[in-house]
């Protein structure tokens, strides 16, 4: 059972070519079976295809979201609006969680057990989910973040959210992946994941591929709908045009894998 776009860490293995090559070296035949149907995202193949095309993981480039009665897609103008929309779903007894790209530091709990609100965007801030297997400060351990009602107050990262599903999915796209000049730009300096610090292990091209995989995982956790917020205004405008407007944003194959190194997330990627 293989999804090549679930590889989100350097050194993770698992693609069709590697499997076929290893099998042939041992004199084995490989018969790949394509599972056309899936139940993630409310069974909406249209949404999964839309996400993969949006992120340049499937040919064709970004396209408008034409809707699916089984799945809802929305854009939030602020992180507060994103959280409020998810809270409304909770009030309807629906599951809802926020997750984000790893673009903020991740502190350990304070000595009194309270969590540090590391994910800070303007006047809005929330803590990451707990790292370990012990509850602290009213927050559940990492393994229960997606299912325990107390998990709503924290922002999940890809390593916590991967493998889980909830009814409503709020995704914060950080400054490590932004839309510029009809293509994605990966901004390495805006990412705080320690797994990406070593440039000898993860070059810029590999970083860009892994970051797009990260957001693919985050964007496909919802069963009923996804609400997206980007910290970058230009990226929000692009998403709003695709989801709510009438102007499709298309990109060439070459522009989907650019990478930029800048002074930091405040200065934005070079054009």
What does this structure look like?
The protein is an alpha/beta fold. It has one domain (38-260). It is 24% helix and 17% strand. It contains six helices and ten strands. The protein has helices at residues 16-25, 45-54, 79-91, 158-161, 204-219, 233-243; strands at residues 72-75, 96-100, 119-121, 124-126, 155-156, 166-173, 177-180, 183-187, 222-230, 258-260. The strands form three sheets. The chain has a five-stranded parallel β-sheet with strand order 1-9-6-2-5, sandwiched between helices. A three-stranded mixed β-sheet has the order 7-8-10. A two-stranded antiparallel sheet has the order 3-4. The radius of gyration is 19 Å and the shape is globular. Residues 246-256 and 261-271 have low confidence and may be disordered.
Summarize the structure in short.
The chain is of the alpha/beta class and 271 residues long.
List the helices and strands and how they pair.
Layout: H1 16-25, H2 45-54, E1 72-75, H3 79-91, E2 96-100, E3 119-121, E4 124-126, E5 155-156, H4 158-161, E6 166-173, E7 177-180, E8 183-187, H5 204-219, E9 222-230, H6 233-243, E10 258-260
Parallel strand pairs: 1-9, 2-5, 2-6, 6-9, 8-10
Antiparallel strand pairs: 3-4, 7-8
Features:
24% helix, 271 residues, 3-stranded mixed β-sheet, 10 strands, alpha/beta, single chain
